[in-house]
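Input sequence (149 aa), recorded before submission:
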Amino acid sequence: MGGVTMRKIIVLACLAASLDLILPAISAEPAPGMPDVDGAVRIPAFLLPESSLFDNATRAALKDGRDLLGGLPSAGQHCPEQEGADRARMREIRLCEAEAFYKLPLYQKLRAQYPVTVTPQTIGGVYTEVFTPADGIAEKNSRRVLINR
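Predicted structure, token format:
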């Protein structure tokens, strides 16, 4: 999560677009829409607008979803980079990313919708969070565990 900035994404997109224009002229790469030697066809990216067939309720639901996820791409940007981090540093990075995620509207809505207690634990040297329903665990689930990464 950390380390990828919008500026980097824009620079990489511009570089990719430039290479798309230059490489076909200097390589054996076929032009977009033309099959390569294996028969694969390169289709350029395009903008796919929201369907005009959606009703107002669907449009509103999709907008709510986008609003909830709005901060997700930038969550944790201020955290140290995971790549190349040693094991001791990974716990610090994971905690930083978790704190950034906890501030997102999506997380806040989920916490309001599903009341749980969250207990941080280290299991086998790995930082984890144990979520337990606020009303306790139903008898039928007392010997079950859900592992999510």
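Checked by second reader. The CA atoms of residues 43 and 140 lie 51 Å apart.
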